[in-house]
């Protein structure tokens, strides 16, 4: 009989094309170890869900993947997170360029106090693109990819804050896409949205995986089951189980996973 560890290694070992990989990664808030010795690989052009009860460290881990925790004083990280074989935790890494490659969408839609157009054009302008036609092309392409173009094409120059919550969240996705990332980190992107808007975001995520690697934190297990190919279950900072989503939900190998999925805690 293989040990559980061996079984999991075998299962995660079937990821043929790895976009990003954590190796023995830990993250501390001062002396508190919020993420503990996590090793896992994220498949390219696919969706991986991070699930677990409140406080288990899934958002902290997600934010570590593009060094977003750096902005919190007193944080410390150990281990490695590899992108193309390079450790992104290395102090010499250019975090602005890293965050261009690994974009982030937050729980609450947070468009800038600018027009729809200027929200999407912001990143490309920051990168030095000034040509008006080129910017128009990028804005249209990004809004189309975020499944928002048809709804906003006649109001590009009105305030983004006037959009609905669901539209604002798709605008935030368009804003991320506009700077051509390779990986998108989504931190509970639908938790503030109504069911119809949630469905649109879920459809969008499934569409976007053709072009991007997507890592999503969700409280919603049905959502993880609907849109992800792999799921990682965290508990008190530990990665308890990582597997293909179908296996995880149909035959979890750990009791804690089974209890959580069955709604016995969390
Ligand atoms: N800025 C911070 N300073 C100190 N501790 C923090 C900070 N942010 C999170 N923590 C702690 O780290 C642990 C993990 O928090 P985290 O937000 O990553 O969990 P989570 O699983 O994403 O929870 P939720 O689903 O409620 O967002 C928790 O114990 C939390 O209290």
TrEMBL record:
One of its GO terms (molecular function) is ATP binding. Residues 20-261 form the ABC transporter domain. It comes from the Bacteria. SUPFAM superfamilies: P-loop containing nucleoside triphosphate hydrolases (SSF52540). Keywords: ATP-binding, Nucleotide-binding, Transport. The keyword Transport applies. NCBIfam families: 3a0107s01c2 (TIGR00972). This is Phosphate ABC transporter ATP-binding protein PstB. It comes from Marinicrinis lubricantis. The lineage of its organism: Bacteria, Bacillati, Bacillota, Bacilli, Bacillales. The gene is pstB.
């Amino acid at each position: 009989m293989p040990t559980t560890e061996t079984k999991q290694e075998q299962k995660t070992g079937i990821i043929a094309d790895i976009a990003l990989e954590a190796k023995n990664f830990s993250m501390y808030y001062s002396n508190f170890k919020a993420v503990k010795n996590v090793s896992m690989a994220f498949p390219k052009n696919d969706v991986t869900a991070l699930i677990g009860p409140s406080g288990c460290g899934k958002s902290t881990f997600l934010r570590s993947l593009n060094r977003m925790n750096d902005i919190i004083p007193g944080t410390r990280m150990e281990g490695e997170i590899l992108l193309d074989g390079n450790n992104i935790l290395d102090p010499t890494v250019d975090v602005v360029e890293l965050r261009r490659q690994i974009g982030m969408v937050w729980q609450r839609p947070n468009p800038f106090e600018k027009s729809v157009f200027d929200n999407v054009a912001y990143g490309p302008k920051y990168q030095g693109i000034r040509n008006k036609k080129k910017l128009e092309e990028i804005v249209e392409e990004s809004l189309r990819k975020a499944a928002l173009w048809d709804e906003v094409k006649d109001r590009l120059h009105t305030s983004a804050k006037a959009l609905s919550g669901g539209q604002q969240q798709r605008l935030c996705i368009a804003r991320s896409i506009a700077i051509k990332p390779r990986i998108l980190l989504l931190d509970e992107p639908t938790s503030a949205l109504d069911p119809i808007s949630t469905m649109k975001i879920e459809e969008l995520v499934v569409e976007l995986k053709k072009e991007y690697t997507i890592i999503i934190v969700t409280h919603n297990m049905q959502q993880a089951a609907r849109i992800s190919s792999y799921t990682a279950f965290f508990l008190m900072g530990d990665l308890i189980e990582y597997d293909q989503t179908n296996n995880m939900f149909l035959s979890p190998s750990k009791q804690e996973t089974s209890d959580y999925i069955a709604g016995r805690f969390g």
